[in-house]
Amino acid sequence: MTQQGAVLQGYNNELVKCIEDLCMQKEELNKQIQQAEEEKNKLQHEIQILSEQLECVCENLAKKVASRNELDKILAETEAAYMKILDSSRTLLNVLKKEVGTLKHTPELKTNVT
After folding, report:
1. Which position has the higher pLDDT, 34 or 2?
2. Which residue from 27, 28, 32, 54 lies 20 to 30 Å from 69 (Cα-Cα)?
């Protein structure tokens, strides 16, 4: 019986050691899980901050693009109006030159000019 008791005691010691090893593995795994959860929470917080920043940048970009489009429209309208003014000025100048040329050929002006 003492031999059986000794064998049983050996099994018991081995079983206790295996249980202790499993508990140590569990503790280590719990530490790793806690670290991973902390890292996950940190990254989620950073993502939230970056998402908010991205939203602000997108809103500002949209406003700037809208302003640029409005300026493009105003610039195109202004350039078109300016071209009409240039065309009218050229037409007026041509008419004025023609009238001056016509007046130079009239007899009344020739006598007054000399």
Report:
1. 34
2. 54
Contact 109, 103 (CB under 8 A): yes
Between CA 97 and CA 103 the distance in angstroms is 10
CA distance linking residue 95 with residue 103, whole number of Å: 12
Token pair 């206790």 is at which residue?
16
pLDDT in tens, 11-55: 999 999 999 999 999 999 999 999 999 999 999 999 999 999 999
pLDDT value of residue 5: 82
In order of 82, 99, 100, 104, 112, the CA distances from 108 in angstroms are 39, 15, 13, 9, 6
**Cα 22 from Cα 35, distance rounded (Å):** 20
